[in-house]
Amino acid sequence: MTALDRAAPAARTPKPGRVRYSILAMLFIVTTVNYADRSTISIAGDAIQAELGISSVALGYVFSAFGWSYLIAQIPGGWLLDRFGSRKVYCWAIFLWSAFTMAQGAVGNFSMGTAVGLLFLLRLLVGLAEGPSFPGNSRIVAAWFPTRERGTAAAIFNSAQYFATVVFSPIMGWLVTNLGWEHVFTIIGGIGVVLSLVWMKVIYAPRNHPRLKQPELDHIIAGGAVVDMDQKRDPGEKTAPRGANLRYLRKLLTNRMMLGVYIGQYFINTLTWFFLTWFPVYLVQERGMTILEAGVVASLPALCGFAGGVLGGFLSDSLLRRGLSLTAARKIPIVTGLLLSTSIVICNYVDASWLVIGCMALSFFGKGLGALGWAVVADTSPKEIAGLSGGLFNTFGSLAAITTPIIIGYIINSTGSFELALVFVGASAVMAVVSYLVIVRGITRLDISDLDDKPSAVAA
After folding, report:
1. pLDDT score recorded for residue 235
2. What's 436's DSSP letter?
3. What is the fold of 19-213+244-453?
4. CA dihedral 291, 293, 294, 296 (to 10 degrees)
5. pLDDT beneath 70, residues of the chain
6. pLDDT given for residue 160 in this prediction
7. What is the model's pLDDT at position 366?
8. Which keywords does this chain's UniProt record carry (predicted)?
9. Is residue 117 a contact partner of residue 109, using CB atoms and an 8 Å limit?
10. Which residues contact 443 (CB under 8 A, 6 or more apart)?
11. Cα separation of 417 and 414, whole Å?
């Protein structure tokens, strides 16, 4: 047999396709619009405050309204995903949160007190509708991507939060300045309504996708993707029992590894929600910029956050391919990035605007680099309750959506400046590092039987 003959079988081996990247692209686009909907209120916040005559504390509560309902929606949203599948539940979520965003554009037609109440209510409804979004992202990535590609995939969809600011902050700043703050809500919400129709044409479970070829399916299965997450199971296959949600919630919360990941997400999201709510107001009120300038300037740190987010996932997967353990490959970017994000405190000691933006950009880059929590959840959650675990993880993150705007509102109201607010944000980054280094030990996938049969790691 010649060398050519020996090489022939290998040459005929089909290469895996790239359908999974079209799924990731859709997740990225949807998450970009998701975060644009969340941040509409921050860009319009100063104009709303001036028109309605509300205090910083009241504005902080309006900012936090999303977080209250978003938190409540996490566990039910995760259950809905596990029960009915990611494709249908997520589609309805996109449509509803977009419709509620559009409705916020009409609150200016009412009297001051009614307008504030309606704005608060509609922000609650947006949060409620967005509940399944990130647990859905995590489930879809776990179903479509092998373990060694999952860090990059999760980082890409997570980095959409920064890309949303890069793309939409200048646009929203222009809309507020030239057309009025109401149009920020109607236009951004309208984009989401259209996107919900596209979703059903793009997203499928791996085994149901009309364009997925067998070589790519084999590739993702061999790499550890949980492709049957949304498939109907055989009668004898072990699943999470109906009505077992509360029991598994308790088991997840008493597992040391999972609890550390959840707590870490709370502190990481404190940084996120400072940038999503008070950062544009900080630029206008503390640094004297116009709303249009703030919209443009806010995009610069966000661009660095986007770069850091993509780099964090790529670095983590690269370390994994080089032979490092999953624990080391995930923790190195997380800890390094979060330590960099503490540079936000330096803004209290510089006056030049370019230095302030530089420090914010470094902080946002670090936050992006370290925001690998969704990759860790996809790595660790039992497949039978992946949505439930993702919902619980996002519940902790949602607490920050409530506490961060309110705490910073009270700090500004009592001190008249943002100095202590920036210290609070920097300290949260340090606590996230502590969570991953002290509470989370090894990172490994749990089997549902681990939660059934093993004693509590925290109790132990």
Report:
1. 46
2. I
3. Growth Hormone; Chain: A; (1.20.1250)
4. 130
5. 1-14, 108, 112, 229-246, 291-292, 295, 448-460
6. 83
7. 93
8. Cell membrane, Membrane, Transmembrane, Transmembrane helix, Transport
9. no
10. 257, 326, 327, 330, 331, 376, 379, 380
11. 8
